[in-house]
C-alpha cells in the first residue's frame, strides 16, 4: 500500500512538471512592449520612441507581446513592412483597441504601429524579427 502511494506521488510530480514545461512551450515568454511612462497605469506602456525597443531581446515565434495603453488615444495596428516604414496602415489592417492586448509572435517579421494622432511618426512603432 505504501509503495502505491509513493508511486502515485511520483507520477503526480511528473505530471505537474510536464504541465509547467508544456505551458511555456505553447505560450512562450511574455514581453511588455514599451517603457515606463506617467500616462500609463501599467508599469510598462506602449508609447513613443520605441523603434529600438526590441534590441538586446531574444524574441522567438510563439512568444507573446503585451501592449498596455489608453484605448482612447492609442491603438496597436498590425501592418506590413511598408506600413511600418511609412506609418500608413493600408487596407483592412488588424487593429487592437482594448488597451491590454496580447499578441503571439508569428514566424517571420511582424510590424506594429499606433495609427492614431500621428504617434507612429513619433516612434510609436515596433518591428519584431523573431530569432531562429
Automatic annotation (TrEMBL):
Entry annotated with the keyword Manganese: no
Transmembrane helix listed as a keyword: yes
Gene Ontology cellular-component annotations: plasma membrane
Keywords assigned: Membrane, Transmembrane, Transmembrane helix
InterPro entries in UniProt: Cupredoxin (IPR008972), Phytocyanin-like (IPR039391), Phytocyanin_dom (IPR003245), Plantacyanin (IPR041844)
Regions crossing the membrane: 6-27
One MF term in the entry's GO annotations: electron transfer activity
Domain Phytocyanin: 29-132
Name the record gives this protein: Phytocyanin domain-containing protein
Amino acid at each position: 500500500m505504501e509503495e502505491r502511494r509513493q508511486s502515485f506521488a511520483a507520477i503526480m510530480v511528473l505530471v505537474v512538471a510536464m504541465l509547467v514545461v508544456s505551458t511555456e512551450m505553447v505560450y512562450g515568454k511574455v514581453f511588455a512592449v514599451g517603457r515606463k511612462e506617467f500616462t500609463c497605469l501599467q508599469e510598462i506602456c506602449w508609447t513613443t520612441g520605441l523603434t529600438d525597443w526590441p534590441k538586446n531581446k531574444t524574441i522567438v515565434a510563439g512568444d507573446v507581446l503585451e501592449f498596455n495603453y489608453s484605448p482612447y488615444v492609442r491603438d496597436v495596428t498590425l501592418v506590413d513592412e511598408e506600413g511600418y516604414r511609412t506609418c500608413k496602415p493600408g487596407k483592412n489592417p488588424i487593429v487592437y483597441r482594448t488597451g491590454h492586448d496580447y499578441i503571439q509572435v508569428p514566424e517571420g517579421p511582424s510590424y506594429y504601429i499606433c495609427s492614431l494622432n500621428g504617434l507612429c511618426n513619433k516612434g510609436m512603432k515596433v518591428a519584431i524579427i523573431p530569432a531562429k
